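Researcher: We plan to redesign the surface later, but first we want a full-length starting point. Tokens attached.
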């Protein structure tokens, strides 16, 4: 009778082992062998000498935790081997740690420092809400709804609470993309129950006011040129500061600028009008990598703009960003369609541009109602 072959026992990729330590306890660790490489993962779990029944019970519970950790590690390795996302492991990350990581990543990608600062403030309120030990898997619909109620109960303005809620929402969306969580639980909250940003006002200059500025002197000539250039092309201050001579090219008489927008990290290919090109400063060198505009600090720059506008009799709060608003309303007033203006400004959503369209429509309504009675 032929001898039965013993089944080949598959070698375990993860083994639970013990290591004696100085105080007499046994430290539990995982011995991991994969693809010809060995690594160790210490569990920070310890078996104590069994002197009492309580010691024996404690050791049994500790071993259960260690076996569960071993099982999880095997599942993670199998998931990785078969190309599955490792969401189970990642979801144990603390929410506060993820939000700090997210803020750092946004800053590294060129996002405005203001957004990272806002995320930092939002983290403080997340900690006030439920503490700093909330893991990503704990962030469910109930957690997010509770955070909305918590923010609404504060004395902060609607703009501030909406900003903090937006930080959490953006952070969770990013966590989905990075396979930290399978979905954003905020999507399960009805739109009407979320905190919405109040529709903001857009301070802008009319064409007549821009002409007034062009005809008057500013204490800083380069600030004047940069501001009027932005009024005529719509670039943000960060993008104007980063613009280099090599970013400009002339295609059969039409000037264009290739701009990597700091805020969105997306390229736009912006046609420049002859009037916009006229306000470029004189070139100082032949080095194409030189920046075009050399401007002072943002705070001083905005003070110069406000003084310049006040001298011209303009009573609006003028900052550099009003140039971008002015460009949008000017284009729409002159008949450009919303879609085209959205592309020129590099907006990622058409609804952002529609805010300017509402301003122009209001002006049209006011103009129509100026018609006097004929009877």
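Model: Full-length starting sequence:
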């Amino acid at each position: 009778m032929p001898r039965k072959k013993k089944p080949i026992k598959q070698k375990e990729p993860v083994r639970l082992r013990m290591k004696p330590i100085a105080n007499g306890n046994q430290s539990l660790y995982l011995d991991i062998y994969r693809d010809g490489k060995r690594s160790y993962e210490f569990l920070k779990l310890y078996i104590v000498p069994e002197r009492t029944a309580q010691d024996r019970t404690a050791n049994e519970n500790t071993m259960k935790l260690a076996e569960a950790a071993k099982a999880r590690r095997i599942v993670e390795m199998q998931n990785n081997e078969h190309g599955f996302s490792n969401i189970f492991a990642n979801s144990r990350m603390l929410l506060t740690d993820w939000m700090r990581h997210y803020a750092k990543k946004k800053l590294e990608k060129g996002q405005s420092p203001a957004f990272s600062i806002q995320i930092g403030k939002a983290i403080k309120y997340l900690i006030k809400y439920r503490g700093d030990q909330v893991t990503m898997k704990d962030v469910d619909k109930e957690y997010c709804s509770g955070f909305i109620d918590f923010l609404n109960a504060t004395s902060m303005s609607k703009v501030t609470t909406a900003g903090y809620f937006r930080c959490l929402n953006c952070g969770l969306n990013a966590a989905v993309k990075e396979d930290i969580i399978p979905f954003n639980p905020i999507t399960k909250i009805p739109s009407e129950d979320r905190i919405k940003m109040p529709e903001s006002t857009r301070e802008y200059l009319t064409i007549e006011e821009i002409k007034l500025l062009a005809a008057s002197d500013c204490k800083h000539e380069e600030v004047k040129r940069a501001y009027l250039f932005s009024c005529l092309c719509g670039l943000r201050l960060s993008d104007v500061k980063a613009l280099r001579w090599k970013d400009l090219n002339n295609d059969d008489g039409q000037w264009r600028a290739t701009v990597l927008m700091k805020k969105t990290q997306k390229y736009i290919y912006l046609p420049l009008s002859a009037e916009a090109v006229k306000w470029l400063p004189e070139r100082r060198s032949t080095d194409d990598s030189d920046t075009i505009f050399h401007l002072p600090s943002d705070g001083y720059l905005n003070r110069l703009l406000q003084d310049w506008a006040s001298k011209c009799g303009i009573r609006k709060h003028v900052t550099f960003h009003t140039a971008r608003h002015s460009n949008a309303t000017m284009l729409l007033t002159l008949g450009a369609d919303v879609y085209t203006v959205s592309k020129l400004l590099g907006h990622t959503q058409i609804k952002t541009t529609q805010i300017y369209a509402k301003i122009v429509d209001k002006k049209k309504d006011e103009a129509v109602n100026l018609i006097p009675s004929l009877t």
